[in-house]
Amino acid sequence: MARPIAFIDLGSRMIQYFSTLGQYLGPAYVPVFFSLRYKSRGVLRRLHYPLYPNRPCGSAERFPEEADIDSEYLVPKLRTETDRASVLKQVPYYCWLVGELHHFFEHIRPAAIFLWNGSGLAATIAEQLARHRGIAVVFGENGYLPNTLQLDAMGVNAFSSFARAWSLDEIRAFQWTEGQRQELAKLLVVYRDNRLPRPQGRTEHGGRLRASWINYLR
Q1: Which H or E run includes 151?
Q2: Residue 200: what pLDDT?
Q3: I need a surface site. Which of 51, 63, 103, 185 has the fewest CB within 10 A?
Q4: Cβ atoms of residues 99 and 60 within 8 Å
């Protein structure tokens, strides 16, 4: 039986990219999406994926006691002051979100979860719940050069395994071959000229798949 790989709260463009991975995961794994955003949910609906959670937003007085959450672990990883305040004050939306993610993990029991950047409220909660359950966590982010993608099991930016493993002096001491230097120089020409890659993955109608107009109105 195929085991789920859970993608947590991706934006509408990311949903389109990562939803195509299903055909490449092989018979052992299947993609499942936990999505809170209207446009992302609209795209998933058009692609015939089940929607998790069953409704895009809600509130609760408290989250389930069995959902073991450490607020001090969450707060430093959150990007916005609003999200940090939501955790510290345990506002109803935050309590609802913890409960929904807890029930999602209990129901889906994923083999791994994927987080883009990982600094959003849903992503930080999902990371902590997954690690408590021994579920593998993978972070994704844009690479530092055009047409590149970075994947990391620890996090991105200051939380990445690369940032934790080496000091700046150790990075400066790395030795590169002449071939590697030439390859980097070619990439930097495009990077410095700000030449963005052309969009790919067009639909049969000539453009990328969009959510329905009602999702934009929402």
Answers
A1: strand 149-152
A2: 45
A3: 185
A4: yes
CA angle 142, 102, 127 (to 5 degrees): 30
Cβ within 8 Å of residue 132, ≥6 positions away: 68
Phi, psi (5° rounding) for residue 164? -80, -25
Token code pair at residue 56: 């895009």
Asked if 114 and 5 touch (Cβ cutoff 8 Å), the reply is: yes
Contacts with 160 (C-beta within 8 Å, 6 or more apart), sequence order:
139, 150, 152, 154
CA-to-CA distance for 34 and 41, rounded, in angstroms? 9
The tens digit of pLDDT for each residue in 199-218 reads 444 555 555 677 776 776 76
Q: Which of 30-39, 119-128, 179-188 has the lowest mean pLDDT?
A: 179-188
Instruction: Extract the runs of DSSP E, i.e. beta strands, from 9-71.
Output: 29-34
Domains of the chain: 3-217 (3.40.50)
Which distant-in-sequence residues (6+ apart) come within 8 Å of 37 by Cβ?
9, 11, 12, 56
Rounded to two decimals, the pTM is 0.80
Q: Amino acid letter at 16?
A: Q
